[in-house]
Amino acid sequence: MAAAYNRVLLKLSGEALRGSESYGIHVPTLESLAQQVGEVQSLGVQIGLVIGGGNIFRGVAGSAQGMDRATADYMGMIATVMNALAMQDALEKQGVPTRVQTAIEMADIAEPYIRRRAIRHFEKGRVVIFAGGTGNPYFTTDTTAALRAMEVQADIIMKATKVDGVYTRDPAIHDDAVLYKELSYMQILEQGLGVMDSTAITLCMDNNLPIVVFNMTVEGNIRRVIEGDDIGTKVYTS
C-alpha cells in the first residue's frame, strides 16, 4: 500500500524506550521501534523523530523536588540527547542512515540543529532525530515536536502512546471510557484532554498541522498510520 504522507514527525516519549524496565532503556524495545521506523523509511517516507527524556530525567519532576527549574530542564534536554543517540545506534545497526541534530551544541556527538540541513537529510533518505528540546527551559518535547514539524514542513505529527488514541477518560481506570476517532484542537484545549501540552496544541492549531494519536505498543501501527489506516485519534481543525 502506498504511503499517505511524504514527511512525518514521530513523537515518542522517553518512557517508550523504557519498555518493561523501571528506568533507562530497554534494548529489545528500542530495537523493535527502530525496526518499525526503518520499515517506514524503506517505503520512501521522510521521517523525523523527537524523543522525550522521561525514562532518564524529567525536568518538571526535578523542579518539584526543589531543583532550579531551568537547571532541571537543561538536564532533561541532555537526557533526550542520550535517547537520540541510542535510537541512532539501533537504526544504523539495521542499515538506516540517521542523523542526530541537537538544539544545544554538542559538536563531538551530534550536529547542531539547522533547518535547511535537516531538510536536506530528509531528501537524501536519512532519518533525522531532533534532540535537546527547543534549547530553552520551560518548553516540553511536545512543543519541540510541533515546532520542528512546522519548520521542516512535515505533513503530520504522529504522537505515539500506550493506548489506542484519545479517550473521554483514562481507559486504564474507567471501563466506560470512549475512544474519540476525531477531535478538533479547540476540543482538546477546552476539555483538557492532555494529548499534548497546550503550547504544542496551539502551535498546531495556528498552523493547521494535523496530529494522529495512536498505540505504539501494537507492532506495525507506525506503518499503518503512514499508510492512512483508520486507527487512533485524528486531531485537526473542525
Written account of the structure:
With 238 residues, this protein is of the alpha/beta class. The protein has a single domain (7-235), classed as Acetylglutamate kinase-like (Carbamate kinase, 3-Layer(aba) Sandwich). It is 39% helix and 18% strand. The chain contains nine helices and eleven strands. It has helices at residues 14-18, 27-41, 59-64, 69-93, 115-123, 141-151, 185-191, 198-206, 221-226, and strands at 7-12, 46-51, 98-102, 111-112, 127-131, 156-161, 166-167, 179-180, 182-183, 211-215, 233-235. The strands form two sheets. Strands 4-3-5-2-1-6-10-11-9 form a nine-stranded mixed beta sheet, with helices on both faces. Strands 7-8 form a two-stranded antiparallel ribbon. Helix 2 packs across helix 4, helix 6 packs parallel to helix 8 (198-206) and helix 7 (185-191) runs antiparallel to helix 8 (198-206). The longest helix has 25 residues, at 69-93. The protein is globular. The two termini are 28 Å apart. The relative contact order is 0.16. The mean pLDDT is 95.
Throw out a few tags for this protein.
238 residues; alpha/beta; Carbamate kinase; two-stranded antiparallel sheet; 18% strand
Itemize the secondary structure elements and their pairings.
Elements: E1 7-12, H1 14-18, H2 27-41, E2 46-51, H3 59-64, H4 69-93, E3 98-102, E4 111-112, H5 115-123, E5 127-131, H6 141-151, E6 156-161, E7 166-167, E8 179-180, E9 182-183, H7 185-191, H8 198-206, E10 211-215, H9 221-226, E11 233-235
**Average pLDDT, all residues:** 95
Sketch the major β-sheet. 9 strands, mixed
Total beta strand runs:
11
| Total of helices | 9
The strand order across the widest sheet is: 4-3-5-2-1-6-10-11-9
Helix content: 25-40%
